[in-house]
């Protein structure tokens, strides 16, 4: 397993958002985390990527214990993520957004910037080249000089993927990659996620669009009220009584999650 959690728990005061969860994310595969609203999916992402500290349990990456590492160091190991609401700079170009993402990987400090050292110039060039490469990969090469505020929702999702990919990750965590995108446009995002995996990446995503998940995922983990209630192939999950019960019993939003 590329990432493995054992007994992972995150409590916010009296509320246990992630409750004793064991999850394995297999290298080179697409793993989906599903579950009704408030099930703990985003919290699980936040704890694995170091944005929140865990209350209990262990997280390993390639066998290495990363439980106590901070977000920045986890990112440097090759674990990237996107957010539910794409946190792009709307008034900057697509290219500049990606270049900023790539700076995480480079070494120039404030002195290099002040002195305009050769290292800084070299790194700036490398950043732009990397940004061009990932923008081409996600199909945004023609949009690279446009302001983020001027591109479509689907293109913003692609740009968020590009920002994540610019850090040369081994695994990307995508939080609702198709949220807010027209049903006709989700096909392109599905193809892009498959392309990532075909290029050696591992993908883990949270998504409410069930049809899309059933087509896309190799492995599905189902959370409900912080607990893992099932995992398996799309077919196994579709036929799992506990899962069906959780969704039907989860109120309007859950029943609406198609
Ligand atoms: N920073 C926080 N402080 C306090 N409670 C939180 C915090 N983040 C999440 N929670 C709570 O933890 C529970 C799980 O939330 P989480 O956002 O992880 O669920 P989710 O499965 O991602 O839901 P959704 O599908 O609606 O995004 C919810 O009850 C939520 O209110």
UniProtKB/TrEMBL annotation:
Keyword DNA repair carried by entry: no
Alphabetical UniProt keywords: ATP-binding, Nucleotide-binding, Transport
Pfam family, one: BCA_ABC_TP_C
SUPFAM superfamilies per the UniProt record, alphabetical: P-loop containing nucleoside triphosphate hydrolases
Keyword ATP-binding: yes
Gene Ontology MF term list: ATP binding; ATP hydrolysis activity; L-isoleucine transmembrane transporter activity; L-phenylalanine transmembrane transporter activity; L-valine transmembrane transporter activity
Any one Gene Ontology cellular component term annotated for this protein: plasma membrane
GO biological process: D-alanine transmembrane transport; L-alanine transport; L-isoleucine import across plasma membrane; L-valine import across plasma membrane
Domain ABC transporter: 3-250
PANTHER family to which the protein is assigned, alphabetical: AMINO ACID ABC TRANSPORTER ATP-BINDING PROTEIN, CONSERVED COMPONENT OF ABC TRANSPORTER FOR NATURAL AMINO ACIDS-RELATED
Name of the molecule in the record: Branched-chain amino acid transport system ATP-binding protein
């Amino acid at each position: 397993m590329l990432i493995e959690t054992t007994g992972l728990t995150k409590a916010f005061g009296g509320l246990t958002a992630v409750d004793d969860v064991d999850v394995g994310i297999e290298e080179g595969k697409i793993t989906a985390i599903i579950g009704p609203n408030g099930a703990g999916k985003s919290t699980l992402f936040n704890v694995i990527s170091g944005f929140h500290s865990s209350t209990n349990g262990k997280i390993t990456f390639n066998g290495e214990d990363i439980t106590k590492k901070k977000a920045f160091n986890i990112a440097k190991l090759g674990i990237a993520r996107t957010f539910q609401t794409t946190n792009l700079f709307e008034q900057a170009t697509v290219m500049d957004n990606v270049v900023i993402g790539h700076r995480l990987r480079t070494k120039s400090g404030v002195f290099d910037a002040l002195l305009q050292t050769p290292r800084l110039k070299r790194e700036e060039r490398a950043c732009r080249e990397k940004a061009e490469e990932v923008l081409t990969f996600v199909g945004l090469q023609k949009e690279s000089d446009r302001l983020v505020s001027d591109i479509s929702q689907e293109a913003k999702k692609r740009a968020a993927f590009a920002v994540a990919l610019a850090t040369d990750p081994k695994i990307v965590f995508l939080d609702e990659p198709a949220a807010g995108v027209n049903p006709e446009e989700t096909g392109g995002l599905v193809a892009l996620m498959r392309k990532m995996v075909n290029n050696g990446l591992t993908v883990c995503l949270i998504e409410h669009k069930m049809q899309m998940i059933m087509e896309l995922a190799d492995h599905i983990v189902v959370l409900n009220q912080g607990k893992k209630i099932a995992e398996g192939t799309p077919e196994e999950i579709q036929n799992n009584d506990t899962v069906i019960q959780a969704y039907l019993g989860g109120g309007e939003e859950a029943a609406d999650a198609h």
